[in-house]
Amino acid sequence: MALASSMAHAGEGKSFGTVSGNIDFASEYVFRGLPSSGNSAAVSGGLDWNYNSVYAGTWMSNVGNDTSGNEVDLYAGITAGDFDFGAIAYLYPASPTMREDKILELYAGYNKGMLSGYVYYGVNSAGRADDDYIYLDANLTAPVSDTIDLSLHMGYTIFHGKTYDFGNPDYMDDMFDAGVKISHASGLWVGVTSIFESNTVRGYKRPRVNIGYSMTFDDIYDIVLNL
After folding, report:
1. 14-225: what fold?
2. Based on the number of CB atoms within 10 Å of its own CB, is 12 exposed (0-12), middle (13-18) or buried (19 or more)?
3. pTM
């Protein structure tokens, strides 16, 4: 869905990529199986810039737990055929311990048709050098009908240090997470996620049902410069 046209017509200058956007309303913000909005509804949105094989963007959401306030993610990467390489910084500006809560991930992924697989490496997470981790991510998205898609997700987190929490001290041990999501062309979606790990507490292991509405805005701005 285009919200705005380019400020310059094709041929008037050199294109330096396009900007797109997204907004999502969800009954809860769930990150890799872990509830992250304090059991409250979440509103998130982002902007993405793409130029040939290079991209960068930002994404924001309200969060809860010890990183109360907002989460701001900054990311950039490059694609090469079906491969994807990049980095993500997770920031919590409203947290009183923002410097300790920040997280940097490096990632490599492969996308082919309905399948995708990624490896994420967390570098000096939460400001503690012994808390690096690896997250393995696998996804399958397939059309069920002309208007409905089914997405399956599996993930596994491997912690190198003794603790790692993304702002929650109960999120500590190696664990497996899985989810199922059904999306409609209108933007409505419903998903179920769960964590499988013996030491996870506070009910995080129980399946969590999440519903929401997503909007995407493709090519809302075309960056054209007259050189």
Report:
1. Porin (2.40.160)
2. exposed
3. 0.82
